[in-house]
Amino acid sequence: MKLSLCIATYNEETNLHYPLDSAYNLVDEVIIVDGGSTDKTIQIAKSYGNKVKIIQTNNPPMFHINK
């Protein structure tokens, strides 16, 4: 069985490491859906390597509630 972690983000550079560090070794992939961050969220996510897939959108910060 393959286990994926999906995280919706928007300017989460100070918090993103918490879920990534906690779950990284427990999952097969991490999917980050970013709502147009203007900070270092994407750079931090990319630093975790190939296991992290990033989907970037330009939707408003609350985009994940309506999807």
Describe the protein's architecture and organization.
With 67 residues, this protein is an alpha/beta fold. It has one domain (4-66). It contains two helices and three strands, in the order E-H-E-H-E. It has helices at residues 17-23, 41-46; strands at residues 4-9, 29-34, 52-56. Helix 1 links the parallel strand 1 and strand 2. The longest helix has 7 residues, at 17-23. The termini are far apart. The model has no long low-confidence stretch (mean pLDDT 91).
Layout of helices and strands:
Layout: E1 4-9, H1 17-23, E2 29-34, H2 41-46, E3 52-56
Parallel strand pairs: 1-2, 2-3
Features:
single chain; 67 residues; alpha/beta; 3-stranded parallel sheet; 19% helix; globular; Glyco_trans_2-like; Glycosyltransferase 2-like domain-containing protein; Nucleotide-diphossugar_trans
Radius of gyration: 11 Å
Unreliable runs: none
Backbone structural class: alpha/beta
Instruction: Determine the N-to-C terminus distance.
Output: 25 Å
* Rough outline: globular
* Helix coverage percent: 10-25%
The strand count comes to 3
Strand order of the largest sheet: 1-2-3
The count of domains is 1
Pfam families: Glycos_transf_2
Domain Glycosyltransferase 2-like: 4-58
Organism: Candidatus Roizmanbacteria bacterium CG_4_9_14_0_8_um_filter_34_12
InterPro entries: Glyco_trans_2-like, Nucleotide-diphossugar_trans
Compact description:
The chain is α/β, with parallel strands linked by helices and 67 residues long.
